Amino acid sequence: MRILKAKDYKEMSEMAADIIGAQVLLKPDAVLGLATGSTPIGTYEELVKRYESGRLDFRKIKTVNLDEYRGLTKDNDQSYYYFMHSHLFDHINIDKANTNVPDGMEPDAIKAGEDYENIISNFGGIDLQLLGLGNNGHIGFNEPCDEFIDKTHVVDLTQSTIEANKRFFASIDEVPKQAYTMGIGSIMRAKRVLMLVSGKGKAQIVKDAFFGPVTPNVPASILQLHNDFILIGDAEALSCL
Ligand code: F6R
């Protein structure tokens, strides 16, 4: 595990874009695993800037996103499909046929999971997986529980995640109660994992996840066992270390 300290959110985003940009330059047809949420927005802005100035070319890049709310259509502005298009895909030269987000409207959870795992394996696995960190230690939507779940599956969101995500919806009742998410194994099989953490609110969970026991009660703690895991945090998020 490597921990890189940024002074603030902007520097964290630039450092993340440096690493993702290096991956794109080294392997122009790389498979990027992507995340939503507020933390990676600055990184996506930075990648767009670098594309616009001719420094990055996404023509052959393939992507798989971590997760999607169950029951939200692609055109719902709270869906992760919509998020990825508005923050990244619509602004770079990626072939949208090569971008993937779990299908939130697939009613059959088994099929949704299998289809998504097939997409990942047909791509030959993920070269670089970008992650944020939930306040309760979740990664993707793998919530604290009694066991690590391997592959893409449906989850019931915890009350704390529903609370944390209500800021994006008109009211808490509109926050979906379930999601499809890559499993812990889907994430751990990525060749490299890059997690971004920002703000004081994440400081305690960063300490618990990366300096405490490896346990499914803190799902991110499993990343201690990944052999190419980079954590970039701003000063506030790393303030408990
Ligand atoms: C998003 C995702 C989530 C977020 C996490 C942190 O695709 O999988 O695990 O990364 O909830 O969210 P923010 O960045 O909003 O603090």
UniProtKB/TrEMBL annotation:
Pathway: Amino-sugar metabolism; N-acetylneuraminate degradation; D-fructose 6-phosphate from N-acetylneuraminate: step 5/5
Gene Ontology MF: a single term: identical protein binding
Pfam families: Glucosamine_iso
Record PROSITE patterns: GLC_GALNAC_ISOMERASE
Keyword check for Membrane: no
Cellular component per GO, a single term: cytoplasm
Domain Glucosamine/galactosamine-6-phosphate isomerase: 26-224
Active site: D67 (proton acceptor), N136 (for ring-opening step), H138 (proton acceptor), E143 (for ring-opening step)
SUPFAM superfamilies given in the database record: NagB/RpiA/CoA transferase-like
Keywords: Carbohydrate metabolism, Hydrolase
Domain of life: Bacteria
GO BP terms in the entry: carbohydrate metabolic process; glucosamine catabolic process; N-acetylglucosamine catabolic process; N-acetylneuraminate catabolic process
Catalyzed reaction equations: alpha-D-glucosamine 6-phosphate + H2O = beta-D-fructose 6-phosphate + NH4(+)
EC number: 3.5.99.6
UniProt similarity note: Belongs to the glucosamine/galactosamine-6-phosphate isomerase family. NagB subfamily.
NCBIfam families reported in the protein's UniProt record: nagB
Function: Catalyzes the reversible isomerization-deamination of glucosamine 6-phosphate (GlcN6P) to form fructose 6-phosphate (Fru6P) and ammonium ion.
HAMAP family per record: GlcN6P_deamin
Protein name as it appears in the record: Glucosamine-6-phosphate deaminase
